[in-house]
Amino acid sequence: MPTEAELVEKAAHYLYPNYRQPPFVIVRGKGCELWDKSGKRYLDFHGGIAVSTLGHAHPRLVEAVASQAAQVIHLSNYFYNEPNIQLAERLCQLTGLARAFFCNSGAEAMEGMLKLTRRYFFDKGQPDRYRIVAFDNSFHGRTLGALAATGQKKYRDGFGPLPGVTHVPYGDAGAVRAAMGPDVAGILFEPVQGEGGVLPAPPGFMAELRKIADEHGALLLADEIQTGIGRTGSFLAVAKDGVVPDAVALAKGLAGGVPIGAMLCGAHLAGVLPPGSHGSTFGGNPLASAAALAVLGALEDEKLMDNVKARSLELAAGLAELAKKHEKLIATSRGSGLLQALVLKDGVDPRSILERLREAGLLVSIAGASSLRFSPPLVIREAEVREALGIVDRILGGAA
Ligand SMILES: *Cc1c(COP(=O)(O)O)cnc(C)c1O
After folding, report:
1. Which residues span the domain enclosing 385?
2. Which of 252, 263, 366, when mutated, tests ligand 1's pocket best, judged by the most ligand atoms within 8 Å of its CB?
3. What's the number of domains the chain is made of?
4. What are the tens digits of pLDDT across the range 315-337?
5. What is the DSSP string of 254-315?
6. Which residue of 4, 131, 182, 396 lies most exposed, with the fewest beta carbons within 10 A?
7. Is the pTM of this model over 0.85?
8. Domain finish residue from 250, 267, 301
């Protein structure tokens, strides 16, 4: 058995160096706690980038994965499988949408949604209508199609050309109207810009986008990959504005950490991608579907969206207080549900604060240029919110 230090050395040698991991290896978790190989404990407000909906080693998810693995892991879409059919029904019930397409990641869900949009207008005899209006500072994934929609230079640089998308300022309905034209096929948005720095849509903005899309006969496309599955307190964050998009992309928290993506759409789009036009080898496999069913079951039975509401009030209030107390370092706090952030002042290095928090046993992530993102599992408890706020207070106090 290699030691932790040996593993870190092997990682530096063999893994493609496109990430920036700290020099330890996490070996297990329970609830919202993680332990590395040396036995050090971490409180997990990172949540695997807002993925670990049920925390770690949740008995219901463990049981679902283990028992499904013992039945059948994979078949491909040449055959039906029971958990996938059940999952499709449940997602349609939860969202008011009509159909579910399954894949393995957020970027793939985005690709499905973008291809659906192009093909919809192609079928209507408008093959030149494929432009997407999306937003500055957005993040939609790393594949070329999803990257074309992503409105941030740091992700796009060196990968062009990335055509077909017009980016306008987030929250600016006037700019969306100005960008519309007969060639616009869809308006694509995140209800909260997650990777962009945890920026919630202004109140009424999503409803305004619905209106603009309808006025132009364009599709309204919601990227709920980070905001969906109860993270903001409702199953989909678009519910805040009472909006039903034409299509929604889900991934991240849907199966609590087992890779999955889904594209849901309304009945009017059910005929757009007939057999042979789009697909995925692993998409909708029994293992990931069983995991997602366990997540959705726990979300309901453990009333996790009520927990999101209660814990996010405590977290948001605590972060607002810390922003005031440490005003030399913190510009503001913001967020929605259990997707919250402290926005650092210009000149404050988010990485150094992240590292000090980690040494003190708290895992968070950096979003955008200068935000510390708090995206804990939805099972987070009051005492854990208090513990996290205490650590942040102590580290910011020492950093001043
Ligand atoms: C994470 C994320 C994606 C990409 O998901 P992957 O699974 O990494 O491909 C797309 N959109 C949003 C809003 C995300 O947060």
Report:
1. 4-57+303-399
2. 252
3. 2
4. 999 999 999 999 999 999 999 99
5. GGBTB--EEEEE-GGGTTSS-TTSS--SSTT-HHHHHHHHHHHHHHHHTTHHHHHHHHHHHH
6. 182
7. yes
8. 301
